[in-house]
Amino acid sequence: MIGLHFFGKNQITDITSLLGEGGSKKKMFIIGLIVGGVSILLLVLVFSLWRCRWKKSHRGGKDIGVVYYNYRHLKMATNNFGEENMIGKGGFGEVFKAILDDNKVVAVKKLKVEYEGAKVGFENEILLISQIRHRNLLSLLGWSSEGSDLLLVLEYIQNGSLDKFLWGEKRGDLDWKTRYDIILGIARGIAHLHKEFHVKIIHRDIKSSNILLDNNFQPKIADFGLARLQPDDQSHITTMFAGTLGYTAPEYVLYGRLSDKVDTFSFGIVMLEIVSGRKCTYRNFDASSADGLLEYAWKLYETKNLLKLVDETMDVNHYKEEHVVNIIEIALLCTQSPASKRPTMSEVILMLPNNSSLVERQLTKPNCIDHDWRIQLECS
Ligand code: ATP
Ligand code: MG
């Protein structure tokens, strides 16, 4: 048998001469380095691709530029949306306190979406709301949805809402300076919604329970995007009409005529509540047959008796009478009808610290509060 041998049997060939003296180790090292580097790079690439896919599948693919929370995690963090975690219940849904994995405390608002079609447009609205940042507006931190549930993850505000400090369990805790700062903060928050964003956002549901107070009693307006999340025929006004009756401008209730002055009206009502410590629907004013806070305030204005409106839990030494009267007059200015008589919120911000700016404007009592405004049309 003929065998082909390049090298003789047992012959050892030294190839170092081919690689060059001393360079072989170097070359091997470089080759090793390149192979190792490429392998690590490949591993990193594969890992990040896998992570990306994992995240997407956990978010249900709803990556719209605002944090999407895992529904099951939120359900667990709220103790299965349990009673003990519920902070409150409103016209749109329930609010729960939740502690997330990183121990961050948040509020979760659970909204029911009546039909699948109503979800159309949610993502755009949520993205819009999440971009609005102002110290007097409650921040949206993220969201989640499953079936007919839509969850909004919000900043948790420990002091809760303003109504509790005015006529609720914490009544009597607010002095005049704090009340005035709250009024100014609310005005700034609403003005920001109306002016500073590329689209005008009208809140439509300004009321004391939608004003939250942080640890420094700075107001934060809640629910400013909720009206936008409701289809027109399911708005809060029509479904929960009684709940917001006293706050809503007559032209909006009667004709659905929406403008920024709808918020000015509600803001005026909240101002009256802050000064008086009474809810807008309160009726038992001394010897007065007033049908509510607004009508009572107008009666006192006409009889030059506005100081009677002031909350008796406030220390009289802590406020100047002219300042309080001026604030009540601005509130009345805000609640005039027709809407064109009301100031914009930017104008209100200029008026608040300035006692003299009301001189140019004449206050006109809206006709509608003399009668049952639900059938009274001339006030619009
Ligand atoms: P509406 O549905 O018209 O807003 P509402 O404000 O009374 O009515 P919710 O918004 O559901 O109802 O809120 C219920 C209560 O939960 C509020 O009155 C407030 O006390 C509390 N709350 C809401 N959001 C928060 C939050 N982010 N932090 C702390 N408490 C909150
Ligand atoms: Mg609310």
UniProtKB/TrEMBL annotation:
Keywords: ATP-binding, Kinase, Membrane, Nucleotide-binding, Serine/threonine-protein kinase, Transferase, Transmembrane, Transmembrane helix. The keyword Glycoprotein does not apply. GO terms for molecular function: ATP binding; protein serine/threonine kinase activity. InterPro entries: CR_Ser/Thr_kinase (IPR052059), Kinase-like_dom_sf (IPR011009), Prot_kinase_dom (IPR000719), Protein_kinase_ATP_BS (IPR017441), Ser/Thr_kinase_AS (IPR008271). CDD domains: STKc_IRAK (cd14066). The keyword ATP-binding applies. ATP binds at K110. Residues 81-358 form the Protein kinase domain. Belongs to the protein kinase superfamily. PANTHER family: CYSTEINE-RICH RECEPTOR-LIKE PROTEIN KINASE 3 (PTHR47973). This is Protein kinase domain-containing protein.
